[in-house]
């Protein structure tokens, strides 16, 4: 079972931020990554749609014989983590709880900011988890709908990215937060812009790092951590592979080929 791959799913390329960390910290692990580009943005979908999409994709990844699955998408985690855990017997890991635990430990003034998609913000998954652990902490949230398409088109430091970031971060700067959770895996690729605007004294919490550490812990506990060899990787998209490959090449710094997965009553390759 140690040799079996780990599945990752996201609405697009944001989850590659988690994959990059896994490749750095667990380079021996095999990876099966699924990007649902055709149905993005997830942040504008309702919960029943998101649960349906998540379960569909995990079924697809199970056909690739995965031993665990990371929902490498904050929106899908907020909507679908509990139903997915109830539905499948393999370990299912989300990105919200690991990020919250780190943010709560690191804030000094007890004022935490969250930037996320519309669904994640309105769903209140982050504030609820923070308040569960540390009720005394004040939480300030804002949703950033234009960040995802900017990342998907590789505009990580473009002038328009700076422009929209200034607007999104303005209320959080005013709130005097000292810790900011990047509540969408896409936002990991905008850390340079976000840090420059929010101020370098503000701690940025990247779910990719914390989720990878949680994944390693779970695999170790279950005795299924792969400790030898070099990992192999496969990538799938419901979008156009050639379009996805252009941005993925910048993110992963390689020329991995993507295969198209078609969405119908189910998912097939």
From TrEMBL:
Say yes or no: keyword Cell wall biogenesis/degradation present: yes
Q: Which UniProt keywords apply?
A: Cell shape, Cell wall biogenesis/degradation, Isomerase, Peptidoglycan synthesis
Q: Which HAMAP family match?
A: Glu_racemase
Which GO MF terms does the UniProt record name? glutamate racemase activity
Q: What is the protein named?
A: Glutamate racemase
Where does this protein hold substrate?
A: 10-11, 42-43, 74-75, 185-186
- According to its UniProt entry, this protein's organism is Candidatus Infernicultor aquiphilus
Q: In which pathway does it act?
A: Cell wall biogenesis; peptidoglycan biosynthesis
**What's this protein's family per the entry?**
Belongs to the aspartate/glutamate racemases family.
Q: Does the keyword Isomerase apply?
A: yes
NCBIfam families noted in UniProt: glut_race (TIGR00067)
Q: What is its EC number?
A: 5.1.1.3
**Which reaction(s) does its UniProt entry say it catalyses?**
L-glutamate = D-glutamate
Q: Name one GO biological process term.
A: regulation of cell shape
Q: Which residues form the active site?
A: 73, 184
Protein function: Provides the (R)-glutamate required for cell wall biosynthesis.
């Amino acid at each position: 079972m140690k040799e079996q791959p780990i599945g990752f799913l996201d609405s697009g390329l944001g989850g590659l931020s988690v994959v990059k960390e896994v490749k750095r910290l667990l380079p021996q692990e095999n990876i099966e990554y699924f990007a649902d580009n055709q149905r993005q943005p997830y942040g504008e979908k309702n919960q029943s749609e998101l649960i349906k999409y998540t379960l569909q994709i995990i079924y697809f990844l199970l056909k690739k014989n995965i031993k665990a699955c990371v929902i490498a998408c904050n929106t899908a985690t907020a909507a679908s983590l509990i139903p997915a855990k109830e539905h499948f017997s393999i370990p299912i890991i989300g990105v919200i709880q690991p990020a919250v635990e780190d943010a709560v430990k690191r804030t000094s003034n007890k004022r935490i900011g969250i930037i996320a998609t519309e669904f994640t913000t309105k769903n209140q998954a982050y504030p609820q988890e923070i308040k569960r652990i540390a009720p005394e902490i004040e939480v300030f949230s804002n949703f950033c709908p234009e960040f995802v398409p900017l990342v998907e088109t590789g505009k990580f430091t473009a002038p328009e990215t700076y422009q929209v970031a200034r607007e999104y971060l303005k209320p959080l700067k005013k709130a005097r937060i000292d810790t900011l959770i990047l509540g969408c895996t896409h936002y990991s690729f905008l850390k340079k812009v976000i840090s420059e605007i929010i101020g370098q004294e503000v701690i940025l919490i990247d779910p990719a790092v914390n989720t990878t550490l949680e994944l390693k812990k779970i695999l170790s506990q279950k005795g299924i951590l792969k400790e030898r060899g070099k990992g192999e990787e496969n990538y799938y998209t419901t979008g156009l592979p050639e379009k996805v490959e252009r941005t993925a090449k910048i993110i992963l710094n390689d020329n991995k080929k993507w295969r198209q997965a078609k969405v119908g009553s189910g998912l097939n390759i």
